[in-house]
Amino acid sequence: MVPMLLYIAFLVSAVVAICSALLIFRARAMVDAMVGFLIVAVASAAMLAVLGLPLLALLQLFIMVGGVSTYLFVGVSSENLSRFKHTHFPAFVVLAIAIAAVPIYKVLTLGGPSVQTNTLTSGAIVASIGSNIALFYLLAILLFGIGIASIMMMKGLKPGGRR
Amino acid sequence: MMFAIFLAFGFALFGVGIVGVAASRHFIIMMLAIEVALSAAIVVAAAGYAYSAAGGDVLGLLFTLWAVASAEIMGMVAIYRYMQANGMSMDVRELTKLRD
Questions:
Q1: Global model pTM greater than 0.90
Q2: Is 0.85 exceeded by the ipTM?
Q3: d(CA A88, CA B67)
Q4: Are A31 and A76 in contact (CB under 8 A)?
Q5: A12 and B CB contact within 8 Å
């Protein structure tokens, strides 16, 4: 049951991450591209949680708070300088499929090992911060929310819209 | 099999990031594409760590990747300020003006 739930969580995170990554190159407003990147960061943190590495997922979230905030500041302040078609999307899709297909074909034909117990997945992390991990995640999500909402409120911006 | 699926996802996201650099000419979008590729590298490294019995070694690699991502942001801010001070747009084709 649990492996099936993990598998579903992995699939959801993977689809969300890839779609959000595509949104970055499809977005017209820079704010939308930034939101796409933010979702990629959160989805990759969810991947680490699915792998049984909650501490690394938390670190990923905290580190990406700074990155996403900086990109938001720069993206929002360059909004007036960004009114041009920036990505050749058909060429982008064809190239991305071509580049990803070769290694994916190779690794999917391999038999993989099962997950192992090591330093970060054993009882040490669970015993030390396990009881407070939800609080840490809440803190990280709050930081993301406050940072992004304050920038958007400050500039009076709406995703997909103009001021 | 799960390990292979994680690797496949990592390669797919990495492909999106790398091709994004090639297909886009917006400075910030290109930086975001590099960040996407770095996120893919982090997922692949963490998957390799989770599926190995040894443990411990990948943390250095992960911190290196995070440091590279942070350094890239600082570099981006510096170049952005320079472009803005010289009245350029975010179109990287105008970066040739940096020679002047």
A1: no
A2: no
A3: 30
A4: yes
A5: no
Chain A residues lying within 8 Å of B7, measured CB to CB? 103, 107
Architecture of domain B2-99: Orthogonal Bundle (1.10)
- Is B65 an 8 Å CB contact of chain A? no
* pLDDT tens-digit series, residues B61-83: 777 777 778 777 877 777 777 77
Structural domain boundaries of chain A? 2-82+122-155
Q: How far is CA B48 from the centre of its chain?
A: 19
The full 3-state SS of chain A, as one line of letters, equals: CHHHHHHHHHHHHHHHHHHHHHHHHHCCCHHHHHHHHHHHHHHHHHHHHHCCCHHHHHHHHHHHHHHHHHHHHHHHHCHHHCCCCCECHHHHHHHHHHHHHHHHHHHHCCCCCCCCCCCCCCHHHHHHHHHHHHHHHHHHHHHHHHHHHHHHHHHCCCCCCCC
